[in-house]
Write a structure and sequence with these properties.
The protein is of the alpha/beta class and about 350 residues long. It contains 12 helices and 12 strands. The chain has helices at about 5-10, 25-40, 75-85, 105-110, 140-150, 155-170, 180-190, 195-205, 210-225, 240-245, 290-295, 315-325, and strands at about 15-20, 45-50, 70, 85-90, 110-115, 130, 225, 230-235, 265-275, 275-285, 300, 305-310. The strands form 2 sheets. Strands 3-2-1-4-5-6 form a 6-stranded parallel β-sheet, sandwiched between helices. The mean pLDDT is about 95.
Length: about 350
């Protein structure tokens, strides 16, 4: 890792910069990328944000969102920006593979690469690294990096809005265990820009389409399985169900958390048939480590209480493998729930 102050010095003159983030970007990916984008634009740089593919409609109001380039739709243009860039900032992913088809273009680009991320075990594919697994979000890390470089005075309301959304979504509105005193201090500093918190929350969480709401209802009534003896909940979704409810990118976001709202449940899996792959979202409460579980059994990883996985096996085969693992998963039956206040 090279010195961050060295990076600051390199950015004192206008540069051609591209910001990239992971496939199917979530709130932290979009929010942190746009937050950094606004800062760099104010500093006089030529900046583009490039994403591998589409993201949820409820992030399309964020300031600067209209400038984002979708590689899946504009592959040639995205490749040109990467080839021409002097610096590429890699946000919210720890391995290039998370860019999917954009990864080879990133790795062959001649630009100096900078990583800002909070996932475990990042690959060594960048010259500069700002990495902390204890951070709530990459958006929080963008803020702390600017603080380390003494650049916070260049933030504006648009940047603050985007960073706040990244932090809010990755912390479950500041209620997950990754919310630290530092997280709340950063959030408070962002609110000083006069953010409309109620409006932000409404735009993110209260803009369900009718199809999405009916899809959630169908999953909870007809597809959720609960295994109290293993303190586990499971929701499976077929490709046909995705088609029936016209599920769009981002419409499954948050669904995996619902089984965890059942008393005594500490482990949840959302298993979705995505054509050639079965995609998994793991969530847990307390001490149960879903990052380790995903890494060991489903070619995945992420965070201690929120992780993902993939498989080329059939939906039924993945489900059966998952269920077979539950009785032998060390620590699940003894997983400690977060302490309750007295």
């Amino acid at each position: 890792m090279h010195d961050i102050q060295e990076l600051k010095q390199l950015l004192t003159q206008p540069r051609r910069i591209v910001i990239v983030t992971h496939a199917r970007p979530d709130g932290d990916a979009v929010g942190s990328s746009l937050g950094l984008y606004h800062y760099l634009m104010v500093r006089g740089h030529d900046v583009r944000v490039v994403v591998p593919n589409a993201y949820a409609e409820f992030y399309r109001w964020l300031p600067g969102e209209e400038t984002i380039l979708d590689h899946q739709k504009s592959g040639a243009a995205a490749a040109l920006f990467l080839d021409d860039a002097e610096f590429i900032f890699c946000l919210d992913f720890n391995v290039p593979a998370r860019l999917e088809t954009l990864a080879p273009k990133l790795l062959k680009a001649p630009a100096t690469r900078v990583l800002i991320d909070h996932h475990r075990d990042p690959d060594h594919f960048t010259r500069y690294v700002w990495h902390d697994t204890a951070a709530s979000s990459t958006a929080e890390l963008v803020y702390t990096l600017l603080g380390e470089m003494d650049e916070l005075s260049w933030l504006n309301r648009d940047a603050a809005t985007c960073l706040y959304v990244g932090m809010m979504t990755d912390t479950g509105s500041f209620r997950y265990s990754n919310t630290t005193p530092q997280t709340l201090r950063v959030a408070a500093a962002l609110l000083e820009f006069g953010l409309d918190v109620e409006s932000i929350y409404e735009r993110i969480f209260h803009t369900f389409s009718e199809d999405r709401l009916r899809f959630f209802g169908h999953c909870l009534v007809n597809k959720m399985q609960v295994f109290p003896e293993h303190r586990t909940g499971l929701i499976t979704v077929t490709q046909q169900e995705l088609d029936t409810f016209r599920v769009r990118t981002g419409d499954t976001e948050g669904l995996v958390n619902y089984p965890l709202s059942i008393s005594g449940i500490v482990f949840a899996l959302l298993l979705i048939d995505r054509g050639n792959l079965r995609k998994m979202s793991f969530r847990s409460k307390g001490d149960f480590n879903v990052d380790q579980f995903a890494r060991e059994h489903f070619s995945g990883g992420g965070h201690r209480n929120a992780s993902g996985g993939v498989s080329t096996e059939s939906l039924e085969a993945v489900q059966q493998k998952f269920l077979a693992l539950l009785p032998q998963t060390a620590g699940l039956s003894e997983a400690a729930l977060p302490p309750t206040s007295s």
